[in-house]
Design a protein that fits this description.
about 75% helix, mainly alpha, about 0% strand, elongated
């Protein structure tokens, strides 16, 4: 069953806390689900992508502060 940005991320991760991250999570999860048919893998991969985007945003912010 495909996820929408409103139902999937809410149940499977707290890191998708903005509309942009929720759309990203749903897009990745649905893509993996379509390719593999494995819901567990889809959720894990979507969580990983959203987690990396959160880490990258923090790193970028720290780099800007350092000058």
């Amino acid at each position: 069953m495909p996820w929408s940005q409103n139902d999937g991320p809410v149940r499977h991760t707290r890191k998708a806390n903005t509309p942009k991250k929720k759309r990203m999570w749903a897009h990745v999860a649905n893509g993996v689900l379509e390719r593999t048919g494995d819901e567990g893998s889809a959720v894990r991969q979507a969580n990983a992508v959203v987690g990396r985007s959160e880490f990258n945003a923090r790193e970028e912010k720290a780099m800007r502060r350092r000058g």
